[in-house]
Amino acid sequence: MLIRRLRHAALLEHVNIVLIAAVALGVLGMPASPANLAGLGLVALLLLEGGAYWWLKVHQLRVRAPRPAGIGVFRTLGRLNLVLFALGGAVIAGALATGASGAHVWPGAALWGFAVLEHVNYFHLQLSHQCRADLARLRRTRRLHPSPLARDLRGHRARTPAPR
Prior knowledge:
Elements: H1 2-27, H2 34-63, H3 71-97, H4 106-123, H5 132-141, H6 148-159
Helix pairs in contact: 1-2, 2-3, 2-4, 3-4, 3-6
């Protein structure tokens, strides 16, 4: 059951990349301005990372490994995301500073914010609660908990030998 749910989550993250782009650019007619594309690109990147993590988690459970294969790459991705958020924010701020109109900036800013929330949801705190067990734990403890990726990264750090 858990493996099926994680496989579903991994697939949906990747499908959502296409859906969000299609809705934003096609259905809603979001202009393909630099600010909007920066926000959309960041959302796509975070969803891609999230889907990749869930696929690795499925593999970990199938082979009964102590942690997902390649988990250390996500530590690097987490740091790289921060740089990309700063660059995306600079593109959006630059568009605002040059007087770009609302439709050429605000959708990208909203998507940038969504990407930041996805980063927090994956790399730090579990913001998304989609199963009964997660919701029950949230109601019981009344606080957010570390995300599964954050827990795996913490476990990886504890098991990684210090450089000599």
